[in-house]
Amino acid sequence: MGKIGLFYSFKSKKTAKIAGIIHNAFSGVEVQLVNVDEVHKEQFLEFNQMIFGVPTWFDGELPNYWDELLPALEDVDFSDKKIAVFGLGDQKGYAENFCDAIGIMTTFFEEKGALIVGNFPLEGYTFERSKAVKDGQFRGLPLDQENQARLTHKRIENWVEIVKKEFN
């Protein structure tokens, strides 16, 4: 397994906390933390394996920093890249678009040729709809710090094991 880029906003407190836990869960593996608020397009080319952290804002939207960054990546070929995504959402307060940002991100990068890894089961979640769901599973790791924070560490452990296998 080569060096992994872990991209997230250092300013987003909850996402940054989760990124730290994920970073620690990859013990023994080189994972470089990358601040998406200051990232340049060329930095995406430095990694063949990337993890993106993205909370869902408002009614199923990407945060501004990702929303502004994606157009700059339109012409980048990600066909030799493996990408995993984790996201934060609120399955009670926003049940109709729980963790939609995961779905938006995975769709974008899949259309750019990336292989999306790290699918996660739906069991244990209660929501109405999510763009993160495809073929009966989440396209990444959804976390609900508002309603299920006690499940976060175990979900991260399970997901990191899945991602490690698929990154190899």
CATH topology: Rossmann fold
State the CATH superfamily name.
Answer: Flavodoxin domain
Tell me the series of helices and strands, N- to C-terminal: EHEHEHEHEEEEH
Output the structural class.
alpha/beta
What does the main sheet amount to? 6 strands, parallel
Low-confidence stretches: none
The CATH level-2 architecture is identified as 3-Layer(aba) Sandwich
**Helix amount, in percent?**
25-40%
Number of strands: 8
Our count of helices gives 5
**For the CA atoms, what is the radius of gyration?**
14 Å
Average pLDDT works out at 95
Distance between the termini: 5 Å
* Domains (count): 1
Q: Which band does the percent of strand residues land in?
A: 15-25%
Assembly type of the shown chains?
A: single chain
Shape estimate: globular
Q: In CATH, what is the class? A: Alpha Beta
Sum up the structure in keywords.
168 residues; two-stranded antiparallel ribbon
